[in-house]
């Protein structure tokens, strides 16, 4: 089949896969386990025919018959970003005749180095169908709903292009804007457009939604409250939830995933636990010895990717979980630590403990740590305009005490109070960055 035909049929394939996926979160855990186990076995049978994975099977003396459940995947080697990068490059170099038929996608580079990976049209259709049904979990209707989202590297804004014929009839309505405008007074324009369009779903990067919420609060703007709003690309902490709820309401949906895997861990509004998309993914948690655990590293397997399978992918984030009747649910996602705290006379340590400090006091809307030297830590803070329970001085004293509890007198703290913390060049915002070479 030619690339042109495949491209034209992609929407048809997306609709086909959407019809096969769960539209509501299943509650029958016996069914979840049985179906997921069957899909794991089918995936491993396909992977056995892929040379990259066949070598891994042989190295561990395994066959597809050894994999009948989500837990069985713990027998298989972990796939690192470096492994994936090397494999994707070899596939690309070895098959120039397929270049026009493959989508060559790239991650944002928030982990330090952008990762390019390959995707067939079929896999791309599966990813799109999965995202649509994720929104459907929270009540979005793909035909009648209205979606307001940001421009991505795969979906660009065309200011000259208006609604399609279908959209003019009130179907599949969506509006896409550039996040580059989400600065300064450009935020007012976006908020005015949200109020005019009144979307059912609002989908932006977390740091953009926070900037929009803070702008609205400082300027006493009333903002349309969508049925669902989805902060994507970045972790959502308790502090962020409070700031967003004050402007956008109670419809926050936390959808976790990556460019490589698609959305796989979902918390619908009002839910306590995160559900794992059991028909498209397996998410296991490994400890430092690569054993299954309740808390540790997030390891993702995509059950729908049969052309370029992603099996036991170590994405770099951490989470805690609970297993109920044999089905794993995620309690909280701690996110990745792209930089480690560096010490002059000891090993590097995780920055996770730093992330907990702001949650111990109210009145902060945004924060970021920047380690500038072995003994200098800069802390950027944004005051929550809706909460004056503590002064800036009291908040600084709180940070001084908590940092001393962690590191003694190792760091001198430098505080910067800002109106808003700008994102990194890739559009995301890290909460900790080490600037030391």
UniProtKB/TrEMBL annotation:
The keyword Methyltransferase does not apply. It comes from the Bacteria. One of its GO terms (molecular function) is ligase activity. The keyword Ligase applies. Keywords: Ligase. SUPFAM superfamilies: Acetyl-CoA synthetase-like. This is Phenylacetate--CoA ligase family protein. It comes from Jingyaoa shaoxingensis. The lineage of its organism: Bacteria, Bacillati, Bacillota, Clostridia, Lachnospirales.
């Amino acid at each position: 089949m030619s690339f042109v035909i495949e491209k034209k049929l992609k929407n048809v394939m997306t609709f086909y896969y959407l019809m096969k996926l769960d539209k509501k979160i299943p509650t029958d855990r016996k069914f979840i386990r049985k179906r997921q186990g069957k899909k794991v076995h089918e995936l491993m049978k396909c992977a056995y025919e892929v040379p990259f994975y066949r070598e891994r099977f042989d190295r561990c003396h395994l066959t597809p018959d050894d994999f009948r459940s989500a837990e069985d995947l713990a027998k298989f080697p972990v796939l690192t970003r470096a492994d994936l990068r090397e494999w994707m490059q070899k596939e690309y170099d070895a098959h120039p005749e397929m270049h026009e038929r493959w989508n060559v996608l790239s991650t944002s580079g928030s982990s330090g180095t952008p990762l390019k990976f390959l995707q067939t049209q079929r896999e791309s259709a599966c990813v799109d169908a999965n995202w649509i049904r994720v929104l459907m979990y929270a009540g979005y209707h793909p035909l009648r709903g209205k979606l307001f989202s940001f421009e991505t590297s795969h979906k660009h804004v065309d200011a000259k292009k208006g609604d399609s014929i279908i959209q003019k009839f009130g179907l599949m309505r969506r509006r896409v804007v550039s996040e580059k405008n989400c600065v300064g007074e450009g935020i007012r324009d976006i908020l005015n457009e949200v109020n005019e369009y009144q979307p059912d779903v609002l989908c932006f990067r977390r740091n953009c939604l926070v900037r929009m919420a803070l702008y609205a609060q400082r300027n006493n703007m009333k903002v349309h409250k969508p049925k669902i709003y989805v902060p994507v690309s970045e972790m959502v902490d308790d502090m962020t939830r409070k700031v967003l709820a004050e402007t956008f309401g109670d419809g926050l949906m936390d959808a976790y995933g990556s460019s490589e895997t698609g959305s796989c861990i979902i918390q619908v509004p009002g839910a306590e636990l995160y559900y794992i998309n059991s028909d498209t993914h397996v998410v296991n948690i490994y400890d430092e010895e690569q054993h299954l655990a309740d808390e540790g590293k997030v390891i993702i397997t995509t059950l729908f990717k049969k052309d370029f399978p992603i099996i036991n992918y170590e994405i770099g984030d951490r989470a805690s979980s609970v297993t109920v009747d044999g089905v794993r649910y995620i309690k909280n996602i701690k996110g990745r630590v792209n930089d480690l705290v560096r010490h002059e006379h000891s090993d590097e340590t995780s920055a996770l403990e730093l992330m907990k400090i702001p949650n111990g006091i109210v009145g902060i809307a945004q924060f970021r740590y920047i380690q500038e030297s072995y003994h200098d830590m800069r802390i950027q803070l944004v005051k929550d305009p809706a909460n004056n329970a503590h002064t800036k001085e009291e908040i600084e004293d709180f940070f001084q005490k908590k940092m001393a509890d962690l590191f003694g007198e190792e760091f001198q703290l430098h505080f910067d109070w800002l109106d808003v913390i700008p994102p990194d060049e890739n559009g995301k915002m890290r909460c900790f960055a080490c600037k030391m070479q």
